[in-house]
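Internal tracking record. Fields below are filled automatically when a chain is submitted to the structure queue. Please do not edit lines marked as system-generated. If the sequence contains nonstandard residues, flag them in the REMARKS field before resubmitting.
Queue: standard
Priority: normal
Entity type: single polypeptide chain
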Amino acid sequence: MNIVCLDLEGVLVPEIWIAFSKASGIPELKKTTRDEPDYDKLMRWRLGVLKEHGLGLKEIQDTIATIDPLPGAKEFLDELRSLTQVIIISDTFTQFATPLMKKLGWPTIFCNSLEVAPNGEITGFKMRIENSKLTTVKALQSIGYDTIASGDSYNDLAMIEASKAGFLFRTTDKIKADYPHLKAFEEYNELLDAIKEHLT
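SYSTEM-GENERATED OUTPUT FOLLOWS
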């Protein structure tokens, strides 16, 4: 029994924080897990920047409403879901992901949740589980699934390496250089073909 585990941002949709950085005119918010491997540290820093600028959930959701899946992402996901089970495992938050899941045809997503004050200020975040991507892949394996994983960032590497097959997708040159044993793809058809090889 196979199950494919995909990252969300950078793989199926644009990076939310990069889009919000452009919309808000705050260039430092462009930093993502491609730049900072420690997600907890990154999120705490982001919340500090939001507080400093008086920005909250509504402003970010307004930006997310303008984001569409990457070209070809929904077609790739539709075809993949016709072949096997697929779960999106993301470090994003339910409050960010829901409108994007609608545009992707409501695939299953495992993600985290934000703590939001009545005035809309994001005061904190609740991670679903520690090391969520790796922990989820290992849990799926423990109930009889062979996992195939793909992502683009540092926080995807553990689930990729723990899987029966794992691939980098539209990642950075640095990650490619640091992990030369992992196949890296730029196009959905290449990734789909690589996954299909391991579905038997």
